[in-house]
Write a structure and sequence with these properties.
By secondary structure, the chain is mainly alpha-helical. The protein has a domain of about 60 residues. About 60% of the residues lie in helices and about 5% in strands. The chain has 2 helices and 2 strands, in the order E-E-H-H. A two-stranded antiparallel sheet has the order 1-2. Strand 1 and strand 2 form a beta hairpin. Helix 1 runs antiparallel to helix 2. The longest helix has 27 residues.
Length: about 90
C-alpha cells in the first residue's frame, strides 16, 4: 500500500528516507559499493562503445576510475569483515 510516497512496513518495503534512520535493515555499505560497481561497469561499456563506433579511446582520468575501485573494494571489504565478525 502506498500513501504519500511512503510504503507501509507490513509489505517489507521501505521508503527512500528509511535509509537515513539509525536503525534499519539495509546495509548502506553494500548500497554504496554496488552503486560504485555500476559506475565502473558503465565506464567500461562506454569505453568499449567509443572504441568500436568511433575508433577512439575514451579518455578517463585514472584517478577517477581508481577512486571508484577503492570505494567498491572498501565498501564490500568492510561489509564482509562485519559479517564474518558477527559469526
Amino acid at each position: 500500500m502506498v500513501f504519500l510516497g511512503k510504503m507501509t512496513l507490513t509489505t517489507g518495503q521501505y521508503s527512500m528516507w528509511s535509509l537515513f534512520k539509525d536503525k534499519n535493515e539495509i546495509n548502506e555499505k553494500n548500497v554504496v559499493g554496488f552503486a560504485s560497481f555500476v559506475v565502473m561497469c558503465l565506464f567500461a561499456v562506454a569505453d568499449l562503445l567509443t572504441s568500436i563506433l568511433a575508433d577512439k579511446d575514451l579518455i578517463i582520468n585514472e584517478v577517477v576510475y581508481n577512486s571508484f575501485v577503492w570505494v567498491t573494494l572498501g565498501c564490500f571489504g568492510i561489509s564482509s569483515f562485519e559479517k564474518v565478525k558477527k559469526k
